[in-house]
């Protein structure tokens, strides 16, 4: 990798031809990375958990099989997702709402507001949707009140501050042995969202699912463009070197510190998966 450039984070599809990737900024740390389930496995898989501790940003990439059978907990929502990405008549807004409506049911949630509509894009011929939402979650127990809810410690009864974060979700559906929902959930504290958003936009735009061959061509083209920009643009080069220095500083500070278990790194699965 060239100095200061984002690090490509590809998957290792041991069981199937499906792969995924995103460009993780050098200042981010990977807390955990998992393998894809074998073909036909319908369990939820958390493929990577990463974050930028200085900015408080974090991400998770998740893969979950969609159930469109009569036994599904949300057959209509699953069909809206499948049909939109298969060009069978659904809309981007319906596909987005299929995920949003489940997120709204989090019992520890004190606020949930969708900030954008469904923003459509196409990458290497595959459709994607992005939407942003604000979420406030109580880390303890929600006590319902007449005028307002209260977040409290279930053991002591003391009031707790809610966790206020803004999220960017990028999703697609891939046809494998069944239809599979893939999505990247990237978030930052709402108070610093304006400062974090440009980097989160780039990270969101880099998320792709497809064959390893196609994604490898994408990574090669991006790397060649970055090398060319660094060689031709002194400002870009200095910015790249500055990013590299920051990454080296963060790595040195992390040395000697015990790596926290993945479950304790602060990342919480988006509802209803967490």
Question: Descriptors for this entry?
Answer:
single chain; 274 residues; alpha+beta; three-stranded antiparallel sheet; 5 helices; disordered N terminus
Number of helices: 5
Query: Which class do the helix and strand fractions yield?
Result: alpha+beta
End-to-end span in angstroms? 34 Å
* Mean model confidence by pLDDT: 81
What proportion of the residues is helical, as a percent range?
25-40%
Write the layout of secondary structure elements.
Elements: E1 7-10, E2 18-24, E3 29-33, E4 45-52, E5 57-65, H1 75-85, H2 92-103, E6 109-114, E7 119-123, E8 126-137, E9 141-143, E10 150-152, E11 163-176, E12 178-189, H3 193-205, E13 208-211, H4 212-232, H5 234-254
Helix pairs in contact: 1-2, 4-5
General description of the model:
The chain is globular. The model is unreliable at 1-6 and 257-267 (pLDDT under 50). The chain is an alpha+beta fold and 274 residues long. Strands 3, 4, 5, 6, 7, 8, 11 and 12 form an eight-stranded antiparallel sheet that branches. It has a three-stranded antiparallel sheet with strand order 1-2-13. The chain has a two-stranded antiparallel ribbon with strand order 9-10. A hairpin with a 2-residue loop joins strand 7 (119-123) and strand 8. The protein has helices at residues 75-85, 92-103, 193-205, 212-232, 234-254, and strands spanning 7-10, 18-24, 29-33, 45-52, 57-65, 109-114, 119-123, 126-137, 141-143, 150-152, 163-176, 178-189, 208-211.
């Amino acid at each position: 990798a060239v100095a200061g450039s984002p690090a490509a984070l590809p998957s290792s599809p041991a069981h199937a031809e499906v792969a995924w990737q995103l460009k993780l900024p050098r200042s981010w740390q990977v807390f955990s990375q998992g393998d894809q389930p074998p073909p036909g496995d319908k369990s939820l898989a958390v493929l990577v958990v990463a974050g930028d501790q200085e900015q408080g940003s974090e991400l998770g990439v998740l893969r979950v099989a969609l159930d469109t059978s009569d036994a599904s907990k949300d057959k209509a929502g699953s069909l809206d997702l499948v049909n939109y990405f298969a060009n069978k008549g659904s809309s981007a807004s319906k596909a987005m709402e299929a995920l949003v409506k489940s997120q709204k049911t989090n019992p520890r949630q004190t606020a949930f507001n969708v900030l954008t509509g469904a923003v459509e894009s196409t990458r290497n011929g595959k459709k994607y949707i992005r939407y942003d939402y604000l979420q406030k979650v109580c880390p303890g127990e929600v006590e319902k009140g007449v005028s307002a809810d209260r977040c409290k410690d279930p053991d002591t009864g003391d009031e707790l501050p809610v966790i206020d974060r803004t999220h960017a979700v990028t999703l697609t559906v891939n046809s494998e042995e069944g239809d599979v929902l893939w999505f990247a959930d990237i978030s930052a504290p709402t108070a610093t969202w304006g400062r974090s958003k440009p980097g989160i936009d780039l990270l969101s735009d880099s998320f792709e699912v497809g064959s390893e061959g196609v994604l490898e061509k994408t990574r090669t083209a991006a790397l060649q463009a970055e090398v060319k920009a660094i060689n031709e643009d002194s400002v870009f080069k200095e910015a790249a070197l500055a990013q590299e220095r920051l990454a080296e500083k963060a790595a040195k500070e992390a040395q000697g510190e015990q790596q926290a278990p993945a479950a304790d790194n602060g990342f919480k699965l988006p509802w209803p998966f967490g």
